[in-house]
């Protein structure tokens, strides 16, 4: 039996943008600072309003290529008694990092997500999440995020760096479970246009 080896890691897997990467440019049609960004899919674990156990995060456009959101942690989010589970925190950061791609009008998926857990996070805390894009290189979008306890200036509990890769809409229609893809295309036929993406599946 053979498992993954170091050679399976793609070249350039680092989260450091290459020297030829460019400064991110806020899309001219990006939502104005302060605008609440809708959910990209109502069953999304991170932002879907109809997900029964989801995080129900609502991201807000910031200046530049950046967003913020707040997450009120609850008992359902525990790992250790009374403390948030690290995977829940990573999910929340992945969600806001993904929402940053809206500011570029890019449809992209997470390729790499690296988290640093700096402080334990009690459940019942409100986590203030912020994420911003730092660089773009062809299809690659490099971003960074942080989660602070209690206020946007509160103690830094978790930080993350991530690489997203832009994909065509066919990524979802090809790989997604057929019944869910069919349902969303039936119920929201303009799902791509809803977010005003340029989509050429
Ligand atoms: C109906 C539909 C509705 C949908 C609406 C929802 C929209 C929003 C959804 C939001 C969801 C929320 C978020 C979620 O939850 S996303 C869910 C979690 N993520 C995934 O499922 C992604 C799984 N991975 C993949 O599908 C593929 O690996 C992807 C598509 C990412 C790349 O495979 P692909 O074969 O396409 O591309 P490529 O391998 O040629 O690479 C492309 C470029 O990237 C470079 N590269 C690759 N790896 C690395 C690395 N580690 N470090 C540095 N660079 C790396 C590579 O060199 C190349 O660069 P360049 O050489 O061109 O410069």
How does this model look, in words?
This protein has 201 residues and is α+β, with helices and mostly antiparallel strands. The protein has a single domain, classed as Thiol Ester Dehydrase, Chain A. The chain has helices at 86-100, 170-175, 178-187, 191-194; strands at residues 60-61, 66-72, 108-117, 126-137, 140-149, 156-166. Strands 1-2-4-5-6-3 form a six-stranded antiparallel sheet, covered by helices on one side. β5 (140-149) and β6 (156-166) form a beta hairpin. It is globular and about 40 Å long. The N and C termini lie far apart (37 Å). Residues 1-7 and 196-201 have low confidence and may be disordered. Bound molecules: tetradecanoyl-COA (MYA). The site of tetradecanoyl-COA has 26 residues, from α1, β3, β6, α2 and α3.
The CATH superfamily is known as Hotdog Thioesterase
Termini gap: 37 Å
Total E-strand runs:
6
pLDDT average, as an integer? 90
Please summarize the sheet with the most strands: 6 strands, antiparallel
* CATH fold annotation: Thiol Ester Dehydrase, Chain A
Helix/sheet category? alpha+beta
Going by CATH, the architecture would be Roll
Order of H and E elements:
EEHEEEEHHH
């Amino acid at each position: 039996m053979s498992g993954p080896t170091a050679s399976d890691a793609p070249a350039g897997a680092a989260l450091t943008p290459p020297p030829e990467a460019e400064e991110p440019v806020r899309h001219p049609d990006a939502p104005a600072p302060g605008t609440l960004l809708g959910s990209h899919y109502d069953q999304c674990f991170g932002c879907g309003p109809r997900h029964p156990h989801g995080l129900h995060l609502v991201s807000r456009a910031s200046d530049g290529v950046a967003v913020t959101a707040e997450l009120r942690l609850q008992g359902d989010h525990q790992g250790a008694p009374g403390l948030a589970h690290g995977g829940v925190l990573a999910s929340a950061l992945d969600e806001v990092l993904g929402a940053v791609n809206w500011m570029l009008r890019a449809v992209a998926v997470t390729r790499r997500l690296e988290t640093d857990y700096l402080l334990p996070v009690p459940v019942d805390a409100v986590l203030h999440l912020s994420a911003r894009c730092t660089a773009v290189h062809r299809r690659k979008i490099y971003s960074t995020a942080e989660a602070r306890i209690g206020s946007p200036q509160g103690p830094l509990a978790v930080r993350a760096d991530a690489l997203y890769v832009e994909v065509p809409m066919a990524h979802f229609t090809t790989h997604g479970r057929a019944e869910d893809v069919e349902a969303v295309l039936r119920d929201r036929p303009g799902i791509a246009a809803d977010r005003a993406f340029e989509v050429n599946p």
